UniProtKB/TrEMBL annotation:
Residues annotated for [4Fe-4S] cluster 2 binding in this entry: 69, 72, 75, 79
Cofactor entry: [4Fe-4S] cluster
Gene Ontology molecular-function annotations: 4 iron, 4 sulfur cluster binding; metal ion binding
Physiological role: Could be involved in the maturation of NapA, the catalytic subunit of the periplasmic nitrate reductase, before its export into the periplasm.
CC terms in the record's Gene Ontology section: cytoplasm
Main subcellular location: cytoplasm
Subunit structure: Interacts with the cytoplasmic NapA precursor.
Family that this chain belongs to: Belongs to the NapF family.
Binding site for [4Fe-4S] cluster 1: 35, 38, 41, 45
Protein name per UniProt: Ferredoxin-type protein NapF
Matches recorded under SUPFAM superfamilies: 4Fe-4S ferredoxins (SSF54862)
Alphabetical keyword list: 4Fe-4S, Cytoplasm, Electron transport, Iron, Iron-sulfur, Metal-binding, Repeat, Transport
Organism encoding this protein: Oceanibacterium hippocampi
Originating gene: napF
Listed HAMAP family: NapF (MF_02201)
Length: 168
């Protein structure tokens, strides 16, 4: 697997970006050891959010396809290698964060699109004085499905691994 730090340096980026989000029930170690880049997981994803990224390995792109993972397990069932763990376990440990510089409510414009798209009700908008409520994401309630990311009109939300995803 290519070294992301070296790849960033050679491509002109001084600081490497966040780790790519891998399909559910996988992690970097499983991908590096077992993935052959066949793209079966991508082809099987009914939401069309899996694409093949750098190095030929699958990544989740919440801005593609239907924009959210339904945790259906089709990607795991389609994979001929031992890349995916048990689909009964938590899929991953993603933390969603809000960029106040892009968030409309933080700029005084009323918007609750992320909350409306969150089936888990992990995004709350507590009242605040002096402006519209701003989103607060409950990591305990968030499944990491990505629906909020794909619906945000300004791209103010992002997801990254909050801790090393448990290897299933």
């Amino acid at each position: 697997m290519p070294d992301p730090g070296r790849r960033a340096l050679l491509s002109g980026r001084v600081k490497p970006g966040p780790a790519p989000i891998r399909p559910p029930w996988t992690d970097e170690a499983r991908i590096a050891i077992a993935c052959d880049g066949c793209a079966a997981c991508r082809d099987a994803c009914p939401e069309a959010i899996i694409r093949i990224g750098d190095g030929g390995y699958p990544v989740v792109d919440f801005l593609a396809g239907n924009g959210a993972c339904t945790f259906c397990g089709d990607c795991a069932r389609a994979c001929p290698a031992d890349v995916f763990g048990h689909i009964g376990l938590p899929a991953w440990s993603l933390a969603v964060s809000v960029d106040d510089g892009k968030c409309l409510p933080a700029k005084g414009i009323h918007c609750e699109t992320c909350r409306d798209s969150c089936d888990m009700q992990a995004i709350r908008f507590p009242p605040r004085l002096g402006g519209p409520p701003v989103p607060i994401v409950s990591s305990a309630d968030c499944s990491g499905c990505g629906a909020c990311l794909s619906h945000c009109p300004t791209g103010a939300l992002s997801a990254a691994y909050s801790r090393e995803t448990m290897s299933p």
